[in-house]
Specification:
Layout lengths: L13 E4 L6 E4 L1 H9 L10 H4 L5 H14 L2 H6 L4 H8 L19 E3 L3 E3 L4 E3 L4 E2 L3 E2 L5 E6 L3 E6 L3 E3 L1
Antiparallel strand pairs: 1-2, 3-6, 3-10, 4-5, 7-8, 8-9
Bound molecules: zinc ion (ZN).
Length: 163
């Protein structure tokens, strides 16, 4: 039987992916619900005192993130992460939002809310243009998409409105 990698409980233990890697840790119901809701009970998470010494990178990375969220600089100072683990731990998923603050996802359809010049192409994406199937991309605050008559471009999310 598997137990929670953080607190050792065996209540409804399931796998939890430590993004952006595919590696997982085992979490009990209580740990998981607190982590997913973002409401961490500091008293409950005393278990991090132990999990911070884990040999398992995924457990260390998750513990590091939680300690940071809890503001436990004292414990973070004692932790040792390999450079690769450090990068992993500091990874933050970029959440892209449209002009109204709605979260954008792959495959969404948006409309453009103002005329946008396409740099270097001498073309303009007109206000009101509907763009289907947007994609997350490497350019911060932009989505990748294909616009009829223009081609594959990046659009800044603050000029888009989710349909
Ligand atoms: Zn737990």
């Amino acid at each position: 039987m598997s137990v929670c990698d953080l607190c050792g409980s065996d209540v409804n233990v399931t796998e939890y992916k430590v993004a952006p890697k595919e590696e997982v840790v085992n979490l009990c119901e209580t740990c998981k619900s607190q982590i997913e809701s973002g409401n961490l009970d500091e008293g409950y998470f005393n278990c991090l005192n132990d999990s911070m010494w884990s040999e398992n990178s995924a457990v260390k990375v998750l513990t590091y993130r939680l300690l940071k969220q809890l503001g436990r600089a004292d414990l973070l100072d004692m932790m040792y992460l390999e450079p690769e683990e450090q990068t992993w731990a500091e990874y933050e998923e970029e959440v892209l939002k449209d002009s109204n603050g709605n979260i954008l996802k792959n495959g969404d359809t948006v409309t453009v809310i103002k005329d946008l010049e396409v740099k270097g192409a001498g073309k303009t994406v007109k206000r009101g243009t509907t763009v289907k199937n947007i994609r997350m991309c490497d350019v911060p605050e932009h989505v990748a998409c294909k616009v009829d008559g223009i081609g594959s471009i990046y659009l800044k999310t603050e000029f888009l409105k989710k349909v």
